[in-house]
Amino acid sequence: MTLSEYVLKRNGVPLGAKGSLLKNLENSFGAESNVLFWKYWNPIWGFYLSKYIYLPLNRYLPKSISSIVTFAASGALHDLAIGLLGLGWQNFLTIWFVMMGVFMSISKSLNISYSKFGFFIRAVINISSITICLFLAILFT
Hints:
Elements: H1 3-11, H2 20-29, H3 34-40, H4 43-58, H5 63-87, H6 92-109, H7 119-140
Helix pairs in contact: 1-4, 2-3, 4-5, 5-6, 6-7
């Protein structure tokens, strides 16, 4: 699958199309579960994380562990970008992303869904999950 095909599949609109960012945000924040939130969030980044980290790990590890390691790698790459900008190496984003990966894996294993709720409540739940993980990361750093 190409990047363009992946983005079309995730967003429902072609890569770079007018309104694609809005569609991405609507899909992400209005997602009916934490798993779906991450499925829709930043499809370009997700394509490369999936192709080069998650799928290769899946050959050897359980999906939940592959997911958490992929989140950790994404956080480490974000920390690296901050370090390269001259702001010093931190591990905060790595810890935060691990928390989000654990949260997603738990919510998937418990089959948690917010499909009964409207868009606004789903958005609040999705934003809250990220915020809870942020506070946990602050506690661990």
